[in-house]
Amino acid sequence: MSANIHPTAIISDTAKIGEGVEIGPFCIVDGDVELGDGVRLISHVSISGYTKIGAGTVIYPHASLGHPPQDFKFKGEETWLKIGARNTIREYVTMHPGTGVGRKETVIGDDGFFMVGTHVAHDCVVGNKVVLSNHAVLGGYSVVEDQVILGGYTGVVQFCRIGRQAFVNAMSLLTKDVIPYGAAGGNHAHLEGLNLVGLFEVGTSLQGFGGRWADAGGDAGAFIGMDSFGASAPINDLYNHFGITAERVIEEVKARL
Prior knowledge:
This protein has helices at 196-199, 213-217, 235-242, 246-255; strands spanning 4-5, 10-11, 16-17, 22-23, 28-29, 34-35, 40-41, 46-47, 50-53, 58-59, 64-65, 80-83, 88-89, 94-95, 105-108, 113-114, 119-120, 125-126, 131-132, 137-138, 143-144, 149-150, 155-156, 161-162, 167-168, 173-174, 182-186, 189-194. By secondary structure, the chain is mostly beta strands. It has 2 domains: 1-154, UDP N-Acetylglucosamine Acyltransferase, domain 1 (3 Solenoid); 163-257, no CATH class. β27 (182-186) and β28 (189-194) form a beta hairpin.
């Protein structure tokens, strides 16, 4: 099945367009862009530079992908933006490629959901099934591991690392790392507890629980007893300091069911 390209779209001669791609009205695909099979550009999408987009990704109006990074050190060198498969990229999202002095690429995993106005800066690494809520922004060199959720209007300072399945409340400012399965929030953000919903998915006997957040954490947002977030530290040191063990997590979660 060939691509379906609207007559008002502008496509570079060097672009590679996969099977079944749909490119809607007034889209611009410029440079050495690669669109995987089944990618959909709804309308008014601008993609440039060295950008590769995985199969089945859907991109909504006014998203801007692959344009030069907002870094004074960037001098036009070949750097990449690599986006995985089946991502949803909503209106006004911006994602920039890497820099020559950095990783030389920005990498987005599979099955992500990037809501309106979110930003992924140069040299970031974003895992699979990540959710960036409206207007959440990642500074350069940030690392966001699998299944992280960032609340709306959250800012992540450059070089921060957010561990697997962590949850960050809306309108937070992260200046330090967040441990895997952590729940953080505030300005500046502090560690409030554990993301109990995320912990249901790590292979414990509670895997598959499908209840509401309130059923797991309480309507008052009760968390396992971590009430401070100091300087970044090795994950095991933090777990030991706060007495977090697999057995205690299971006990705490069962007590809230």
